[in-house]
Amino acid sequence: TVAPVITAKLKISKADYDLSGVIFDSQTFIYDGDEHKVELAGQTLPLGVVVTYQNNYQKDAGDYNVIAHFEHQNSNYNTIPEMVAKLRILKAVIDLSRCTLDTSAVIYDGHSHRPVLEGPIPNDVTVRYEYKDSEGEASRCVDSGKYSVAVIFEYDKNNFEPVENMHATLEIIDREITYNMIGFETEKTLIYNGEIQHNEPTMYPDFADITYETVLSDAVNPEPVDSINVGTYRQTVKFSYYNGSNDIVYNYPQSVYLTIDKFQFDSDQFRFNDMKFDYEGRQVQVVPLEWIDTASVFDTIPVTYTFKSEGGSDFTNIVPRSIGYYTCRAVFD
Fold it and tell me: Helix, strand or coil for residue 63?
């Protein structure tokens, strides 16, 4: 007899990769502007297994689920299940602990002021100021008074913990002119120049405007005059300015004196030039006198020209018009 044939089925099931030593833990970072990631750690992946990540490489603060996806080409192994880890980026803290506000009172000077913020300000922060005066609003702190000032810190609120704004009171006080801020020569002598002159202070606050009340010093019933001509004048000086809240006039408590002496000039201060003209049948425009010194006083000195023809005996005020040689004389009146 023939022996029976016995058959049996052999089943080989797909194997699982051993990833028991692979670690994919959640990680926490603090926002610093850079990208962060979580990666596998522990054992090396089996040969032929490749991992890719989804939702990895994050920069902004928040919680992110990062998925590790495994791929392989070996059909004898089962699909590797995905792993999930949490990537957490915490908001950063802005350190303003060393920042202070200097709220010292300032004197009105016509410029805008604000409390001085002292201390290191991180690059991620900008500062903005808001002001309120006694009426509840102000765009800046200029005039005298008290101002409520809010120092507002602006930053990326999505990535930084909240920062409290700072508040302060700024006081701007009135400025004033006092006697010791002004200096005068009690008596000053100047030379006549044809213009109004004053005994000007040697020092005074530059924010003030100066006005003078001038009279002749020896007048019995003095009337206001302009200090132009030769003589001695007594001047009362006033300084007008805005002190931050009001217009103020400060009267200098002493009179000052100004003496104007005669102007002295000589031939070194002018040139008397020869002149030549082509005959045109009419009087020539003769101005042979040229001032070397350009001081305005010379504009006030009248000059009269007279002429004498060649061989003539007398000077006349008739301006030449005929061909010939003439001598010109200048008379200062």
Answer: strand
